[in-house]
Amino acid sequence: MIQDLMRKHKRGLLYVIVGLIIIPFVFWGGYTGFTGGQDPEMDPMFQEPIAVVGGMPIDSRIFMAALNEQLQQRRMMDPDVSYKDLHEDETAMQVIEMLVDQMVVDLQSSDVDLRFDRDFLVEQLRNHPRFQRDGEFDPELWNMWVQDGERTRNWNVEYENIENNLQRRLVLERALAPARVLERDVRRQFERDNTPIRVRYVLVEPEVELTEDEIEQFYAENASRYEIPEQYHVDFATISLEPPMPDLVNELVERARDGEDFAELAQTYSDAADAEDGGEMDWQMPGLTVPDHVQPLFDLEVGDVSDPVKGPNGYYIYKAEEERFSELSGDRDVRGRRIVIRPELSDEARLERMAQAELLVESAGELDDFVAAAEKLDLPVHSSGAFNRQSSTIRNVPSTDVWGFRNAMLELDEGDVSSVVEGSRNLYVAHVKEVEPSELPPLNDVRDDVIQDAKQAARRTPEYRLEVAELAQEMLDSADSIQELIDRFPEYNLVPEETPAFSVAEFRPAQNMPMWPPDAVVEAVWDKQPGKLAGPVRDYMGQLYFVELVEKETPDDEIWDEFEEQKDMIRDRLIARAQNERFDDFRAESRARLNWQLNPQAYGNVIGLEDEEEAVEPDDLFDDEGIEAVDAPVSPMPMGQSGQPPVMPMGEGGDIPVQLPPGAAE
């Protein structure tokens, strides 16, 4: 049955969100040496544990801290995300799952009866990410930490914490050690990754019907979402902080075009980190994610050198060295080299420009006329147009300065003149001409948005997900092809679509193509004949699709020529996948044995639920019977073939003597 198949890949999408950090979290997450002490005066809402695992409580404050990290990440994309949103889409419960995993490993590691000498503990502590820079041990970061703790830190506790972390790692190593990958597995995966396929697909998404009362209720409960924030209209003057382009930039362009070795020029003159590699760049693929200052690289023929390109951190010179064309999309990729020159404004020039900006602030106050004050100093005045606290662009303000400029203006009232606002490229002095008050538009003006948002909220509910799961199960039991689905379920208006050819190795989503893990699609159809129903496959938004194979091509000999180059990387990926599955088994067995319970009252207090019954019970999260889709496998912390976590290079520390914590041998 489909439940048995899908349960093997249970909650794959959940791991996409937090799974990558579970194993590092349970290893380093318990180390408290960097967090400082906790205030013994607890807020009453945090006095109850959020959960209990094997009789051991999980502090509500730890849950709150981890939840805040998720909230901050989500607010980078949606500033209005709240705790309740994290509850409704199950992110909050995913955080609890991660904390439960940490406690499970803690309880298991308490049975490990090993002791380590302090020299070894210090060596292990140096491997902590806090003391790494560019993948190597940084003695300056280490010495600062040692010095800061000389008087305030309990070093016996520190050593005990490190020892506990080593015991955690031993527990994980034992759990993950059986993961093995054979050569034939690597070859099979290479073939799958490089086999172009085309598939048909349909989205399983029953329509959400809303009553007028439900629409009005959603609008009332989420009024702030539709409120038009205060609109600011600002006049401002800019004083550039950018130094002039050095003559060296044009000189390097000419020297490169005259035949001098571009790599040697980059090694000698470039200010970028890749200078020692001759400015070598990876393959660059055209698309919306390519920064504007890199776009000129695609205009070059192989062997050409670009004109100077103004970028966010200086001036760029590119040389195109090689090109290739995708057999599937026809896109042209370019591999090149670059020289980056980053001139700096002198301290004297910077002070002069700051003085000019401060003079404008003073003059605007004396004249009570911002425009006249700016004209008196020969500074042009720009208009911002209307913007608000949510604006990501402001007219006449570079994108790199929008955030700082916007936030500075939000602190002012109508008629105010700002102090000097320092951006990455300019100094700004602004006058707030007008502030339009916020207002809530009537429902009819935003009805379409309200309906769309209400439907999206309904699709995130457990009830809707259960409905989709039951429908998908019914479809799978009664049809062998997408056409049969369409014929047997006309009420769902299934619309078949077809992808262009793609492979896992060259997956570039076409317009309107689902954002799904390509390897999950390949896995679903791999052993199916063309026209046979496969799936369901879940995309990164949690939507379910049924797919069927249209065509599968055989990789040519040229593709297999790349096998030797890629096999180690594929082996590491397969080992990581196997370790992830072993970790799933480990924690499932441990949870069943140790038993854990969620505290609904504490959960409701933290999330801010008005009705504690809204809180999701653990069984709803971990033991649901709903359909589960095949998702992309997610790798845990990188591991070697032996199953042991990698040890970062210690480094010698150059000329900086590495200090030892108290209690360690000299």
Short summary:
The chain has 666 residues and is an alpha+beta fold.
Polypeptide structure, described:
The chain is an alpha+beta fold. Helix content is 42%, strand content 14%. The strands form 5 sheets. A 4-stranded antiparallel β-sheet has the order 13-5-15-14. A 4-stranded antiparallel β-sheet has the order 10-6-12-11, with helices on both faces. Strands 2-1-16 form a 3-stranded antiparallel β-sheet. Strand 3 and strand 4 form a beta hairpin. Helix 3 packs across helix 6 (91-109), helix 4 (60-75) packs across helix 6 (91-109) and helix 11 (212-221) crosses helix 18 (447-459). Mean pLDDT is 79; it is low at 1-42 and 611-656.
Kindly report how far apart the N and C termini lie.
63 Å
Q: Overall 3D geometry? A: globular
Unreliable residue runs: 1-42, 611-656
Helical run tally = 25
Output the structural class: alpha+beta
Q: Tell me how many strands there are.
A: 16
Q: Strand count, sense and closure of the main sheet? A: 4 strands, antiparallel
Spatial order of the strands in the main sheet?
13-5-15-14
Map the helices and strands.
Layout: H1 2-7, H2 12-18, H3 22-28, E1 51-53, E2 56-58, H4 60-75, H5 83-88, H6 91-109, H7 118-125, E3 132-133, E4 136-137, H8 139-148, H9 155-176, H10 183-193, E5 197-204, H11 212-221, H12 223-226, E6 231-240, H13 247-257, H14 262-269, E7 309-311, E8 314-325, E9 332-341, H15 347-367, H16 370-376, E10 381-387, H17 399-410, E11 421-422, E12 426-436, H18 447-459, H19 462-478, H20 482-488, E13 497-498, H21 518-525, E14 533-538, E15 544-552, H22 557-560, H23 563-594, E16 596-598, H24 600-607, H25 618-622
Antiparallel strand pairs: 1-2, 1-16, 3-4, 5-13, 5-15, 6-10, 6-12, 7-8, 8-9, 11-12, 14-15
